[in-house]
Amino acid sequence: MSAAEISHAIQEVGFLVSFRESAIVYPVIMSTHLACIALFGGMILVTDLRLLGLIMTEIPLTNLVDGLRIWKRLGLIIMVFCGLLLATSEMDKYYANPYFQIKIALLLLVGVHAMIFRRSVYANTAAIDRTPVLPGMAKLAGWTSLIIWIIIFSLGRWIAYYEPPERRPGGSQNPTALIEHVERVTAMAAARTPVVQGN
Known about the structure:
Blueprint: H1 3-11, H2 14-21, H3 25-51, H4 61-89, H5 91-94, H6 98-122, H7 125-130, H8 136-158, H9 175-192
């Protein structure tokens, strides 16, 4: 099977079809995803700027990291869960999107970043608090995390504006594919339009 066939098969799984066509659940999950991005992104920003010694220097790094850890993990889990639902329900739109592909790769890089700096920075905050000057390793962790997450969040917005070559002005278009796309969009719009019943 081709990548296009696999992605289409994924998004046609029963519960994903129901989720995609829901006039209530889909918007709620989308809103939750965006809210978690804002909250999680804010906590990441605060942590990274503290590692760089730019804000909240009067607060011990240990207190800040420990206090935000559980909330960052919770926000990340909800954000990723909602993002997976949204992406897999419309895989035809995402699988060939280069911004989506780069975003997934960078999310994996976040895990690598955590493993690299866990022992020397994130699990070593008490020792960092005892140093008169922030260690270079802490600043490196802050800079790399900040850059990676800024790119990830930016890619998340750019995904929506990507147009495949066949849909661009002057690009070659497959009439059958366009008809199928219009039929899917029409069906989704009809499913999300509330039916008003008269007396």
